[in-house]
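ok so I'm stuck.
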Amino acid sequence: MRLLTFRLGILIAGYVTCASAQWLNYPDPSTPLTPDGRPDLSAKAPRTADGKPDLSGVWGVEPAKEGEIERLYGSAVANGPQAVAGDDIRQMNKYFLNLFIDFKPGEEPIRPETRAKEAKLRQAGDNPYSTLHCLPYGMPGRYFNVRPFKIFQTPKELAIFYEVDGAFRQVHTDGRKLPVDPFPSWMGYSTGHWEGDTLVVDSAGYNDKTRLPGGHIHSEAMHIQERFHRRDFGHMDMEVTVDDAVTLTKPVTVKFTEILIPNSDILEYFCAEGERDAAFIDAVRHANH
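replied:
not stuck anymore, here's the structure
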């Protein structure tokens, strides 16, 4: 079991607070159907008028394989209080709790000075996603959460709405380049171009206030590349590379799949800053030191 995973599992309960139940069931006449009338997720991927793959739709992450979360993080995390709250960690992607889970303990590409700073933050109980702060989720962690996101595609840009935080993001596909020195922001600045049927998105200009999955810090120099490939109607294969020369010794690439949620929509989501859970979080923090 990974060091500190139980503590991570407990702290997750601070910012995973309600179930992701999609409410709408409004059949779209353009949705391909199987002979029994169900959406055919294996049908051919749709295309736009200009021949590009159409990435539009509501997408949710493919959950971890059965038993994978228990194997990687232990049963204490998999069956912890977050499941009672309605969000089962076993339904998340394996990278939800740790972006570096594919590395052996101690071999993560994290610079020594970064490890030292993270240790101090953990000791101080730093958790920017707890209900004490309600700060926006970081990238690419939004993709690993069970809550879905929605893509609207136009010839010159994509608009992405993430159910988590109700966050909005633009990906410019009109040929512009990334700014040389973009103003640091929560969601960064994104441009995209097509390589065959794959949309390649480059993003920079992030502030350093968010965390990578697992509570790992990053700097304002972080650059993220996302590759979107809709292989059929219901599946989008994604590859995300995180590069930050200030905090990492090398770029880290992860691959995962998002699954279309047809005939549905994202829900409204707000996290209002407050301190109603301060006593509980402090008690858990002291119990695990």
